[in-house]
Amino acid sequence: MTSLYANPKYYEIAFSYRDIPQEVQVMTELICRYSLIQAKRVLEFGCGNSPHMEELLRLGYTYVGIDLSPEMLEYSRQKAEMFDCHIELHQQNMVDFSLDTPVDFAYTMLGSLYVQSTEELVSHFASVSKALNPGGLYLLDWCVDFTWLGDTDDSWVVEQDGIVTYVQHSTRLINFLEQTFEETIDLAVDDHGTTHRLRQTSIRRAIYPQEFFLVTGEAGFEYIGGWNNWNLHEPLQGTEELVERPIMVLRRA
Ligand SMILES: C[S@@+](CC[C@H](N)C(=O)[O-])C[C@H]1O[C@@H](n2cnc3c(N)ncnc32)[C@H](O)[C@@H]1O
To answer: For the chain, which ranges sit under pLDDT 70?
Structure first.
């Protein structure tokens, strides 16, 4: 089956249920409240199709993206060309990467912190620590797990310009000591009568709150706060019954 991350256009439609302008507004509000430096250069890990790029460029930020998929990077490059904007893209692994010029703000969206072990988790934050200017923020969307990641199943449908994407997302526990699970995203596409089936399978390590605080603290980050569902009126208390798309914000000390 064809890889989902090699098909940016269908990925983009399937994950277009987000309110991107509102999310960028939250990002800029967080920068305004908590960043100790002026944010100019922003970096996205696992940038994929760079959904927030257009809004960020419009606001005058310089966009930097890191991803493993050449197809995703090319798609983002072409989008930036359409806006007549220069962006910086790097085909690197977020686990261990380096940038020549540091950034002022970094973010990872939709739980895209792809690490498979504790070593990789530690390595990611060590790399971020070197790439982010002191006083800058790192925002993580849905990257910290508040419930045990055993077996989960979810599905949704998105239609755009006559293209219908049927998405199935599932996780299956592999090893509870290593906190590893397999994530599968299946996409069935009906593109004006032509059908495609795409799949992405990844082995991942779950990240629970207390170890997140420990690892990021060791890497030189200060925990600024967490909010439920991208809503700055809903700071995370830890007693919520339902936590959905929580964002966590760190500041490089
Ligand atoms: C769920 S998509 C997120 C795309 C985009 N950031 C968004 O918000 O929709 C995850 C992206 O992470 C990339 N990716 C997966 N593992 C990676 C790694 N170890 N280093 C860099 N990118 C990675 C994939 O190629 C894919 O484009």
So the answer is: none
Q: What pLDDT score does 21 carry? A: 98
pLDDT of residue 1: 74
CB 215 within 8 A of CB 143: no
Q: Which residue from 124, 108, 126 is spatially nearest to 46, judged by alpha carbons?
A: 108
How far is ligand 1, taken at its centre, from the CA of residue 48, in Å?
Answer: 5
Q: Are strands 2-3 and 41-45 parallel, antiparallel or unpaired?
A: unpaired
At residue 107, the pLDDT reads 99
Give me the chain's average pLDDT, please: 97
Would you say the CB of residue 15 lies under 6 angstroms from ligand 1?
Answer: yes
Rg of the chain over all Cα atoms, to the nearest angstrom:
18
Question: Do residues 14 and 187 make contact, with C-beta atoms less than 8 angstroms apart?
Answer: yes
Q: Give all domains of the chain, ordered by start, each with its CATH number.
A: 2-144+208-252 (3.40.50.150), 152-205 (2.20.25.110)
User: Distance, CA 141 to ligand 1 centroid (Å)?
Assistant: 13
The response to whether residue 247 sits with its C-beta less than 6 Å from ligand 1 reads: no
Which pTM was predicted? 0.97
For residue 23 and ligand 1, the question of a CB distance below 6 A is answered with no
Cα–Cα separations (whole angstroms), residue 178 to 6, 144, 205: 29, 16, 7
Q: Is the CB of 48 under 6 A from ligand 1?
A: yes
**Cα-to-centroid distance, 155 and ligand 1 (Å):** 20
